[in-house]
């Protein structure tokens, strides 16, 4: 069972950003399913690394697109992205440092689900009108 089911209400008006968001949701769902499936600590760590790498790619693309459009809340986006990355790195470091992987993975997936949904449905929706001709 997926942690997050993607639907059209998550669309931010940009096909590229929507595809990126769908990929982030898919990666988070994979991490959640791997945790519930009893995957190894190494596998969970690899999935966190993959999620971090893709988030970096997405954040850079999103920030570049918003900068090109003169988006007035770009700085807020950048700060949010940095905070998320720092939080995931903290989870990753605790995971590698011997923290209980089951509890840590539950904490991390719930945090990421909340952050991702709040960020997409809140902050990212504010830029939807800037992409009205690109959906």
What does this protein structure show overall?
- By secondary structure, the chain is an all-alpha fold.
- 71% of the residues lie in helices and 0% in strands.
- It contains 4 helices and no strands.
- The protein has helices at 15-36, 41-68, 74-96, 101-123.
- Helix 1 runs antiparallel to helix 4 and helix 2 runs antiparallel to helix 3 (74-96).
- The mean pLDDT is 88.
Would you summarize the structure shown here?
By secondary structure, this protein is mainly alpha-helical.
Question: Can you give keywords for this protein?
Answer:
135 residues; elongated; mainly alpha
What secondary-structure arrangement, pairings included, does this model have?
Blueprint: H1 15-36, H2 41-68, H3 74-96, H4 101-123
Helix pairs in contact: 1-2, 1-4, 2-3, 3-4
Which term fits the overall shape?
Answer: elongated
Largest sheet: none
Query: Average pLDDT value?
Result: 88
Name the quaternary structure.
single chain
Q: Which class of secondary structure composition applies to the elements?
A: mainly alpha
Q: What series of H and E elements makes up the topology?
A: HHHH
Name the beta content range: under 5%
Helicity level: over 70%
